[in-house]
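Throughout this review, each integer encodes one residue's backbone shape. One record appears below.

===
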Amino acid sequence: MAVLFLTSIKAQTVGDTLRPVRMETITPAHKNSFTDNGTNGTCKIRMQGGNPATVNGYFVFDGSADGDRQVDPQIAVGGGYILHGTNSGLFIYNKKGEFIQGVFQDCFKGGIDPKLFYDPHNKVFGFDMWVYWDKEKIKPVNIAVSQTDDPLGAWNTYSVSIPNGVDGGAVGYSHKWIGYSYPGGGEETFVLKMADAKRGKPAEVFHFPGSLGHPVNAQDGTDDLYFFDITGQHFIIRKVIELPDGTPASVIVANTPHHLRNFDWPPQSAQKDTAQKVSSGDRNPKNLILQNGSIWFSQAIKYHKRSAVQWHQVNAATGALLQSGLISNDTSNYIQTTIAVNKNNDVLIGFQEVNEHMYISPRFAYRYAGDAPGTIREMVHIGEGTGKTGGPAWGDYSCSVVDGDNFTDLWTIQSLSNEKGKGATKIARFSPEERKR
């Protein structure tokens, strides 16, 4: 289960500066784990996925099928590779959908709920994994960063202490910073410098009081790292800046009424052949993107007593809502959504569909930048579920990302329920330039 609960910082207004309350220096573990081939006794090879095909006119291949119902799939795309993470493994494919390498999470000091990113400006991959069962009770978050855009090469892993943390963290990046926020305890956000992590240097990790919000993936390449928070009535945008002495500080950029008409938490969704309902996600976004001066995100919300997908474009400087769209159906449910945006403001919205007459199935919708505000072109089916799940928990991360090599192609990974009711995944590419031809 990976849901981010946000606790806003009290008594801060626009322009206020907030300093970290704690700093620790962490020396990374340096490994080349994907090519270890099991020689150190812990880094066992895993082979899963591949089988590229054309499905309804789109390039699709299989991702991981491990886990129970909580695969928690993630992807990051760059350097000619697709890096795929789940609750129990990490996998590498090329862009033809061919399996390259796979390892268990123990190769990166272990943990659950990986969230992945590819930073195209520093040309590195990164991900986090949370360990709550350590004997020392520091509950470390392991932040792993590759030294190049080749995920088969060297990685540096930083074990950051969050002793009162609980499940539900989120990671984001800018050109200068890596940021992580999580529920639990008085410190709910930390940042470290991307340059230190990339080079494998001992890194100063700065802990802030409370949650700054959900960290945003800064595709614009800004030095400042943005955080986004949604309350019942407002969008709150913060950013972490670097002070002259090299330390970070947080400032509020905007605190703006959002006036969203549909904002209730989504209900659980019915599925075929059983009275057991499944989790639909929640109204807090699972990923946020800074692209061309806007923050983009999607969310699952309640609409006409069912789960629907809502997506938004927000001005990053003012918090003003620039456009918003709704994907809904009075006889079906759309759940577990994420968004991807390219350099042209073309958009892909990934999600799953389920209802009383079908099993959980992967979908995406898309739009071009010049389309009428708030509209989508079509919904694309990239697979169909074949079995019912046995519990409410459903691996509650989908993922959608831009291709970090060309900044135009958009990729998504979505879950489906297989014949045993377990979580399987499909990875698909949407190329706006190809579709326009």
